[in-house]
Task: structure prediction
Amino acid sequence: MAPTARSLGDHLREWRQRRRMSQLDLALEADISQRHLSFIESGRSTPSRDMLLHLAERLGVPLRDRNPLLLAAGFAPVFTERALDDPALEPARRAIDMVLKAHQPFPALAIDRHWTLVASNAALAPLISGIADPSLLEPPVNLLRLSLHPQGLAPRIANLPEWRAHLIDRLRQQISASGDPVLERLLKELLSYPVPEAANDAHSDHAGIAVPLKLSTKAGPLSLISTTTVFGTPVDITLSELAVESFFPADEETAAILRGLSLN
Result:
């Protein structure tokens, strides 16, 4: 038997509960009556497309998951998903390339919603080359797998317990926000890797401001902090799920080493 299609009310209720919001909470956020929202969830009232998109916005529903809401209400999908090399995304791809290049000699990379490496600048290659399992660098490269796999970068990360906890926490937050089953499987895989013993400096000084990535390299130890950049007003699904991770030196020694690597 074919599975029964989920109703609009089921979709809304799931996202509302995922966000830990009562009907009253969402109604206040959306500036509508709780009675109206109750009628929408129960199927007694059919919202307009604009109202549905407004509710999705207040719930923080990812663009990818707004189309199923629209379809459940009988509307056509609004948000498109293009390949990154689609001509329509050329301005966005050009912007990403400009950001990555401008960040040299410090490493920067772009990832998609599943932490798959999409692009990087030249400063990244020396830091990830020569790992024990070269297959981890074969496309599609998953940044979390590469970072935490025992034959990947993990043996080189001096503060692995701390960095691992940081990445796992980020992934769990992403799963909580999206409910993505691919990310759930990735989390299960990462948790199956050997758990590193907490070193005495597992709780470091956070480089004074943030959790650093302390990476051992042939050129010397690096201490890096990172920022995440996303597009501000995307209406394309692919674009909405891209993020640029930029790494900055946490000390002058790291900055000098990275500048030296760029000259080699």
